[in-house]
TrEMBL record:
<protein>
    <submittedName>
        <fullName>MarR family transcriptional regulator</fullName>
    </submittedName>
</protein>
<dbReference type="InterPro" id="IPR036390">
    <property type="entry name" value="WH_DNA-bd_sf"/>
</dbReference>
<dbReference type="Pfam" id="PF12802">
    <property type="entry name" value="MarR_2"/>
</dbReference>
<dbReference type="InterPro" id="IPR036388">
    <property type="entry name" value="WH-like_DNA-bd_sf"/>
</dbReference>
<dbReference type="InterPro" id="IPR039422">
    <property type="entry name" value="MarR/SlyA-like"/>
</dbReference>
<dbReference type="InterPro" id="IPR000835">
    <property type="entry name" value="HTH_MarR-typ"/>
</dbReference>
<dbReference type="GO" id="GO:0003700">
    <property type="term" value="F:DNA-binding transcription factor activity"/>
</dbReference>
<dbReference type="GO" id="GO:0006950">
    <property type="term" value="P:response to stress"/>
</dbReference>
<feature type="domain" description="HTH marR-type">
    <location>
        <begin position="1"/>
        <end position="140"/>
    </location>
</feature>
Length: 162
């Protein structure tokens, strides 16, 4: 008899479940702000690098540049972000956080910190440190390698477009 794959012990499945838990906790705690984790990350990236363009800022938060436009549009609709045409290249849009956006980030910061604590709550203090260290190492190790997505967009390797 064929046995099914044991997803309960598969790293990919566990990481996906952890992501689902993290997003759900973020939504629960920040429900009054009507913001997603990606929107919050992008807003903070613009605070850190005002005047950056969409592609650069999307890469800073490890988000797909092609779909970041809709995230930026939602932040712009809330009055938290503004786009400005680059003087050297009018097609390129530079992003800036508005005063209302800055105020929103300040108001959300404590709640976002609480989300991080809630996510790690099932672990002891030493396990939290170890978990974050291992997770950071896992991410860094994979970011140093060519990802299948990078190969796809470069048009080389086994994922080459035909």
């Amino acid at each position: 008899m064929t046995r099914s794959f044991d997803f309960a012990q598969a790293p990919g499945h566990l990481i996906r479940r952890a992501q689902q838990i993290a997003v759900a906790e973020f939504a629960r705690v920040l429900v009054d702000f009507d913001i997603t984790p990606v929107q919050f990350a992008l807003l903070n990236a613009v605070i850190d690098a005002p005047g950056g363009d969409q592609v650069t800022l999307a890469k800073a938060v490890a988000f797909d540049p092609a779909t970041s436009g809709s995230v930026i549009a939602r932040l712009e609709a809330k009055g938290w972000l503004r786009r400005q045409a680059d003087a050297q290249d009018r097609r390129r849009k530079l992003l800036f956080v508005t005063p209302a956006g800055t105020q929103a980030v300040v108001q959300m910061s404590a709640a976002v910190s609480q989300v991080q604590k809630n996510i790690l709550a099932p672990l002891s203090a030493s396990e939290q440190v170890q978990f974050l260290d291992l997770l950071a190492r896992l991410v860094a190790g994979h970011e140093q390698q060519d990802s299948p997505r990078d190969l796809l967009y470069r048009g080389s390797g086994p994922f080459r477009r035909i």
